[in-house]
Amino acid sequence: MGSGNDSILDMYLYETNTLLEQLDGILLAAEQADTFSEDSVNEIFRIMHTIKGSSAMMEFSSLMTVAHRIEDLFFLVREKGMDVVPEQTRPDLFDMLFQAVDFFRGEIEKVENDEPLSQSIDHIVNKINSLIDKIQGNPTSEEPAEAESAPASETAAPAVGAVNQDYLFGIHVFFDEGSGMENLRAFMLINSVKDYCADFITHPTNVETDPSTSDIIADQGFLVWFRTSEERDNAIHAMNGAGSVREYQPVDAAKTSPAPEAPPAASETKPASPAPAKESPKADAAPAPAAKPAAAPAAGQQHAKESLISVNLSKLDQLMAVVSEIVITESMVTSSPDLKGLRLDNFTKSARDLRKLTDDLQDVSMSLRMVPVSGTFQKMNRIVRDMSKKLGKKAKLTLIGEDTEVDKTIVDSIGDPIMHIVRNSMDHGLEENEADRIAAGKDPVGEVILSARHTGSEVIIEIKDDGQGVDTQAVLNKAIRQGLAAPDHDYSQKEILNFLMMPGFSTNTEVTEYSGRGVGMDVVKKNVADVGGTVSISSEWGKGMTTTLKIPLTMAIMDGMEVSVGESMFTIPINSIHSSLKVSAKDVIHDPAQGEMVKIRDNFYPIIRAKELFCMEQGCDNIEDGILMWVEAGEHSYCLFVDELIGEHQIVVKPLPNYVNGFGVKNFGITGCSILGDGSISIILDVINVYTAAHNIF
Amino acid sequence: MAQIAKSEEVLFAREQETDEYTEPLSEISTEKYLIFSSDSLMYGIRAEQVKDIITDYTITYLPRVPNYVRGVINLRGQIIPVVDIRLRLGKPEHDNFCGIVVDVDGNMVGILVDMVEQMVDVPLDAILPVPTSTSQAMVSGMCTLPDGNTMLELDCELLLHD
Fold first, then answer.
1. Distance (Å, rounded) from C-alpha A335 to C-alpha A476?
2. A626 closest CA partner among A645, A599, A613, A608
3. Which of A278, A281, A355, B134 is least surrounded by Cβ atoms within 10 Å, i.e. has the fewest?
4. Does the pLDDT of residue A155 top 50, yes or no?
5. Is the confidence at residue A575, as pLDDT, over 60?
6. Distance from CA of B4 to the nearest CA of A (A)
7. Where are the beta strands (DSSP E) in B114-161?
8. Greater pLDDT, A237 or A373
9. In a domain? residue B59
10. Is A286 exposed, middle or buried (0-12, 13-18, 19+ CB in 10 A)?
């Protein structure tokens, strides 16, 4: 794996992951309908074929083998129609396919982490084999195949009589049409068969020395005869791995008359006629979207393969950085002090055009990083399915607004939190028994609604279930037991729900496979906070629970309020600002510890002076000269005292240099900086950390 | 020792004299150094580390960092921290603003100095170890320059990480 072919490996991982996601979607839709449409069978066949091919190229043999077997299975289904799978084995088929997808995922993850692949694929291969047997068991046994084969038997029945009475169990192999040098291919096949079994004879013989056998093989196929059927079954594995093998079929020479040999020959000619078995993906691409009702909005984007390219994210970051430089430089040029007082009509006009173009450029480069949340949302389908099976709760997942677009880095980091919340809803949210739901007058099938929508600079993601809701009394009791809450305090509904997001809090007394380990909502909260978002929970007892994630569209650009302290400029994210206010000295309330507070609408809020927190020499000391910024983030709300309010800007966030971060300035609420239009630097404040820093110092 | 004595002779040789040293010269590898002065001492930084020399930039004050980190500057869109070498070495503050931007392990850092002097070629074996380890922190070697001054080789990594 460390072969230096990293870009090929990247491509492989990207491609395989995309295919698996697609496969998941198809399977879920198919399971709902309890059958595969023709299109989805073709699609699965194509996916398996691609995975097989690319895995073989990357030499991931376990992946290749499993994909190959599934391909074989779907080859049968494709040829004979979905009816070939008896009703009672269908659940098995779906389970096996889901298992296979999980297996692929697991292996791909191992590849990503550079771990060795698992070698024990027998259980899954066996499962597939037994399914194939079950499916094949029907038609090959008696009538259907025979009936079909009768008319065809004349056309192509080659002489496949046993050459030697000791070797009665044969395999009849056909190579890809026009593959050329059939004799050498046959020889290679012989070599691989030798790995499984030493005692066999072939027809024609002397393939490696006699090139004239090539035509015979191309014409009539290549026959390998074994002494026992066990030996033959082993050798079939060799056929699976061999190159260019179009078709192979076990033949029994016990009945030496030509008639029984017709069925294999017949079933061979059939696949040959709809020849583009392997070229089918292109042909399939067009009708395929219709086959995926679940992924309908996303289908267009998944299938427009030809117009998509994959780009390394770091290149997009680079582009973004350059574009924001251009935007800043442009405004530095056009508002240059040297131009003051000059009448430059042409310049002004060109500058205006330039302005428009740079704005467009910025929009386009921003949109490059935006991807729809549908990928993340679709994964939840699978989780709901698995959990509803395991827990025996009937549930459906409804997706709303899955084509909402969010910055790629944000999409990546909200996957886990959403999954966690969905699991919580399934595990704790929905009622244990259907009867409880019916008694409460609800639909017996539980519903989890996952929705996403834009509001200005934010994306709001809601995970809503119609389960039993949160028992606030139980939560409060537990919080008291764990020492998180004071027993003799009155808590509001909102405060109690906030306990759910405290580290180590889990209402479930038992640890289940899915939740209850006590690492829960606090991790969700942290992950979401890492991308600059917030989590809030609301719930009504008996009616269900809603978890809302508010996440900024992008981390790279944000709206900020520019404030000044002395000569320094600071940026406060707009979405954490409540309002700004001027107060007079008598409004300020002092506490014994020299802390200052101000009363706004019946609540007291502490005042933090930026000048003192940041040890600055300049800046206002008199509370009446400056301005208070009332900010809120998470559960903290306070007033930051600064000199002046400059104005609102859209700013490009730049990380601080590593060297500076080494001093731990993050702990003082300094998260980054941005370059203003005149080239000066403004420091971006993180409202939560400013509060904790101020708390630790004073 | 003889070797060093000879190389010093090469260093101080006038142009017409250098001819006789051509033979040994080819064996001596030299390295370009940028010489700057700070508090009347001459320091040298390997020229390959130097990315830029800056004057007249506005430094943005950065709170809650050691006093020798004077702040950050905007160098063509890059945010670069600026370290005052006088304060870093515990010397009195001075107002001259002339900065050298160096690249230390991929981190760009500006160093404030009194004056940038010149570029010189220094034979590698002319750089001698510092006799005492404590007296001059962040100096990894010293060397006598053609004009008779002594250059202290600045160890940029020590400058950044204690």
1. 59
2. A645
3. B134
4. no
5. yes
6. 38
7. 115-123, 139-144, 150-154
8. A373
9. yes
10. exposed
The residue among A653, A665, A655 whose CA lies nearest residue A693 is A665
Geometric angle at alpha carbon A65, from A220 and A51, rounded to 5°: 100
CATH 3.30.1950.10 is the classification of domain A158-272: no
Shortest alpha-carbon distance between residue B22 and chain A (Å): 45
Superfamily holding A6-141: HPT domain (1.20.120.160)
Q: What pLDDT score was predicted for residue B9?
A: 55
* Other beta carbons less than 10 A from residue A573's beta carbon: 22
With an 8 Å Cβ cutoff, is B55 touching chain A?
A: no
Cβ–Cβ below 8 Å for B60 and A613: no
Positive or negative, the CA dihedral A465, A466, A468, A470 is positive
Instruction: Judge if the upstream peptide bond of residue A204 is cis by omega within 30 degrees of 0.
Output: yes
Q: Nearest 5 degrees, angle CA B24-CA B28-CA B32?
A: 140
Q: Which residues pair with A571 in a beta bridge?
A: A562, A684
- What are phi and psi for residue A472, nearest 5 degrees? -65, -35
- Judged by DSSP in three states, A547 sits in strand
CATH of the domain at B114: 2.40.50.180
Q: What is the mean pLDDT of residues B41-69?
A: 88
Q: Do A659 and B160 touch (CB under 8 A)?
A: yes
**What's the ipTM?**
0.78
| B25/A contact by beta carbon, under 8 A | no
All residues of chain B having their beta carbon less than 8 Å from the beta carbon of residue A665 are: 62-65
The overall average pLDDT reported for chain A is 76
**Residue A516: strand, helix, or coil:** coil
**Arithmetic mean of pLDDT, A609-638:** 88
Question: By percentage, how much of chain A surpasses pLDDT 70?
Answer: 79
pLDDT (tens digit, 9 = 90+) per residue, A412-427?
Answer: 888 888 888 888 888 8
The domain spans of chain A are 6-141, 158-272, 314-339+353-369, 371-552, 557-697
> Which position has the higher pLDDT, A292 or A668?
A668
Report the residue of B54, B58, B75, B79 to disrupt the A interface, i.e. the one with the largest count of A CBs within 10 Å: B79
Determine, for residues B74 and A675 on separate chains, whether the beta-carbon distance falls below 8 Å. yes
Number of domains in chain B: 1
- Cα(A515)–Cα(B43) distance, rounded to whole angstroms? 62
- Partner-chain contact B79 A673, CB within 8 Å: yes
* Assigned domain for B147 exists: yes
Nearest-angstrom CA–CA distance, A367 and A371: 8
Q: Distance between CA atoms of A574 and A559, rounded to whole angstroms? A: 6
H or E stretch including A589?
A: strand A588-590
Strand-strand pairing, B98-104 and A670-675: unpaired
> Cβ atoms within 10 A of the Cβ of B132, count?
6
Q: In chain A, which residues have their Cβ closer than 8 Å to the Cβ of B80?
A: 657
Q: What is the pLDDT of residue A391?
A: 83
| Domain around B101 | 31-160
Domain membership flag for residue B21: no
Contact residues, chain A, for B77 at CB < 8 Å:
321, 324-325, 328-329, 675
A529 token code pair: 């906070």
Distance CA A644, CA A17 (A): 51
Q: Are strands A458-465 and A544-552 parallel, antiparallel or unpaired?
A: antiparallel
At the topology level, CATH places domain A557-697 in OB fold (Dihydrolipoamide Acetyltransferase, E2P) (2.40.50)
Q: Which fold has domain A371-552?
A: Heat Shock Protein 90 (3.30.565)
Confidence of residue A643 (pLDDT cuts 50, 70, 90): very high
CA-CA distance, B132 to A643, in Å (whole number)?
A: 50
Rg (alpha carbons) of chain B, rounded to whole number: 17
Work out the pLDDT band at B80, boundaries 50, 70, 90.
very high
Q: What is the mean pLDDT of the segment spanning B10-39? A: 65
**Cis status of the peptide bond prior to B129, with omega within 30 of 0:** no
The one-letter code for the residue type at A52 is K
